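Sat 14:20. Reprocessing the chain from the morning session after the first attempt stalled halfway. Input below, unchanged.
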Amino acid sequence: MPTIFSHPVPMLALGVALGRRRVSPRLLLAIAFFAVAPDLDGIGFYLGVPYASWLGHRGFSHSIVFALLCGLFGAGLAPWLRASRLWAGGLAFLAVASHIALDALTSGGLGVAVLWPFSEARYFFPWRPIQVSPMNPARLFSERGLAVFYSECILIWLPSLALVLVSRALRFWGRRKP
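Finished this time. Tokens:
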């Protein structure tokens, strides 16, 4: 999996690119949370839940069903998030889906149970360029953790920054009068 620092980056970039009129600060904060939420299953490691279990890491919480449930929850929060139900739910769904996709691009682990409960199989994309993050927080700040973060900077942070910069440039040039 990418680090907890990188999972929200693409959704935050999308929110900033769309602007405050479309994505309120509350909605931006919510989609950042939804982008990280699937990894709350990591608590299972401390509770003795087997990794390969549907309740284990990258199991149920990394499925399209979980993304849909988060989308429904986001839609329910829409008034507080200052967004329409469709918009809040859609972005919450997309945030979880982005987490699933990023995990499927990593170089390690058991794969992602994206089709649970219809299948317990775990999947990766054929191209897996992102180095898998250490699960132990202490190892996150080791030499290996730094190598992982470097790969995330190249493959997640830079494209996200490019999205923000291009959107800002287009917005700026769109406001200029000839």
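The mean pLDDT is 93.
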